[in-house]
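Exercise 7. Predict the structure of C-type lectin from Elysia marginata.
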Amino acid sequence: MFSTKRFLYLFGCVLIRIDDKGNRFGSNALTASNQWCYSQDNQNSYRSLVPKRLNSGWTGVSDAQQCAIWSLMTFPIFGGFLYNSASGLCSPLLWFDLPSAQGAQPVHPEEGDVYVSCGFCDGEFDVMELSSGELVCLKHVTSAATIEQASSTCAALGAYLVTVKTFPKLELIRTIAKQTVWVGLKYLRSQGIYIWLGDGQTVTNQQMMDTFFDGGPNDAGGNEDCGEFNPYFNSINDISCDQSYPYICEKALPVLAC
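Solution. The predicted structure, encoded as tokens:
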């Protein structure tokens, strides 16, 4: 388990509490554990996704726990809910949607807080929050593997070796990996460019400055075609592919597009 996780537990299921102002909450009637949240209005948080509502919901619901129960009993496939503790308004959600989808609407203040179900990242992955507020789905595999084996294992899970494009992402990886791990970096020697395996995009100079040791890869020895997070450097580093390391898989945030 990752030490940076801060979860809200309800009936053995992990829920994430969010509000539309980015406020953080202490314990409440649902749990004595710490909670975390991010701002629905923060452009670094959950990007452009909006809740997809199942219906207009119910009024007079006593608390968030009751809202969860009603949502589950009425819609077994529900992925979360909106709850306003002042008005008792409870609105079940199927999942999240793209703002371009027909009828897509952001959270209105009168709808209250957003609660996301434990299926957010699927069972084997953990939902993590970057210092920027962005959410990611990660799985840390501690057994050593070759880069090919690691990539194949991640792919079998519907994921890819972790992409580390920003300093907040690097900060998170630092808290997870206490030993060297593979990351999703590849040098295309024939083209002379580095790419991220997750999306195939070219690594930019800014990304190198933000996340790489000494400002970028150096291809020492002329055979460093893969990427690692090295805790000695506390940064991303290019390395020979002829190694075996633990690794981190990343799964794209789930989106329900209509």
